[in-house]
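Running this now, will post back.
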Amino acid sequence: MTVVNVFDAAREGDWDAFQKFYNGNINEVDPYSNFNLLQLAVTSTENSEGRLAIIRFLLENGVDLNFRDKNIVEMHSMFPFLDSEKAI
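Update: finished.
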């Protein structure tokens, strides 16, 4: 797949492309999927090493874990391990 924006980079786990396209908006939302960058990275199955680098970057820089898309899907309802109270 050709990576043409930060959303593609997050979805594909392409750390180099993510750095190239990232504009500083940690909570940017994909207008087509209504997912934020973290949701795109954690729901993908591509390039696990690159996805982990992107996820780590987003978490370390304060991505909103309570983000809700238009269908009101919270991150921690999709991935319970992200709930800090339940973290091991």
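Helices lie at 6-12, 15-21, 37-43, 48-60, 75-78. More later if anyone needs it.
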